[in-house]
Amino acid sequence: MQAEKSDADTEKNETLNDVTTSVANEITNLKIEDGSTSSTPSSPGSTEPGSFLASFKAFSKFGDPKSDGKLITLSQSDKWMKQAKVIDGKKITTTDTGIYFKKHKSTKLGIEQYKTFLEELTKSKKVELAEIKKKMANCGPPGFTGGASGVGKAASTVDRLTDVSKYTGSHKQRFDETGKGKGLAGRKDIPDTSGYVQGYQNKDTYKGQ
């Protein structure tokens, strides 16, 4: 009787161990698929922003409806870095990103290759990798420019389009120097029936005796 109980306990423990191992393997596989594991442990100070991977996936799909979000092109990367204000035309330019991106001999990079690309780029330009990743993680989805700058850009466009001093041709004749519309006179030639010849400068100056 004692032997049967011992065998039952052993079998129960083996089953429990198998279940635990299976669950652990599933968790590991999920992490690998999500790209959240690394071959080397991270130090406390090197933890990258949690939204960096999400931003990578979003920009790697930008302009490519067939993309699964796992590979990013140079143009998509430049779009991302411009929106994040990483590419500023001074410290880092599209020429710089092109050089280091193409060193990987591929038109598309996966997340691990892309991290290496950023490390090489920031090292050569002497900028902080962590700061660059932070900007790229927090720049918002593709196409997002922010409220304040968007309003300012719209106002600038309106000012440019309503500046009558820049009008030419027939449009120029529709406004006076202050920008006020001339109405019908600015849109249609009205014949002069005053009796004076064209070009006469002293119209309405004669006073009868």
From TrEMBL:
GO cellular component terms attached to this protein's record: microtubule
Highest taxon listed in the record's lineage: Eukaryota
Region annotation (Disordered) ranges: 1-20, 27-50, 169-209
GO BP term, pick one: positive regulation of protein polymerization
A GO term, aspect molecular function: tubulin binding
Compositionally biased intervals (Basic and acidic residues): 1-15, 173-191
Signal peptide positions (record): none
Pfam families given in the database record: p25-alpha (PF05517)
Low complexity: bias regions: 35-50
PANTHER family: P25 ALPHA-RELATED, TUBULIN POLYMERIZATION-PROMOTING PROTEIN HOMOLOG
Family to which this protein belongs: Belongs to the TPPP family.
Protein name as it appears in the record: Tubulin polymerization-promoting protein homolog
